[in-house]
Amino acid sequence: MKLPIIPIIKSVTDLRYQTAEIIKLLEQSQPVLVTRDNDTVAVMLSPTQYQQIINFFEELEEEKETEKLEKAIEEGGKFTDFNLIDKKQRKKLKIG
Fold first, then answer.
1. Of 13, 26, 69, 85, whose CA is between 20 and 30 Å from 92?
2. Does 6 have pLDDT greater than 60?
3. pTM for the whole thing?
4. How far is CA 62 from CA 40, 47, 77, 95, in A?
5. For residue 36, is pLDDT > 90?
6. Domain 8-45 top-level CATH class
7. HSE of 8 in the Cβ direction (CA atoms, 13 Å)?
8. Does residue 17 register a pLDDT over 90?
9. Could you say which DSSP state residue 3 is in?
């Protein structure tokens, strides 16, 4: 995932009066920081950039879960046989 280091800074007033221009920046994958009284109040990203960030964090989470599973296997961890769980527990856990 590659994001520009320096985003474009626009004020809330700019956002109000230059919406089309700001949308074009976003379409060019340029993030926009929105400020009010010199305080950052929002960060705008293109849908593609947003999805890249979501995918990146999902991959990190999957790696983390995989590492936990591998560690449990290495340590001889016990796993549940879901066929031994009764119907009430299955429904509660929302499995099979």
1. 69
2. yes
3. 0.60
4. 32, 22, 19, 20
5. yes
6. alpha beta
7. 18
8. yes
9. -
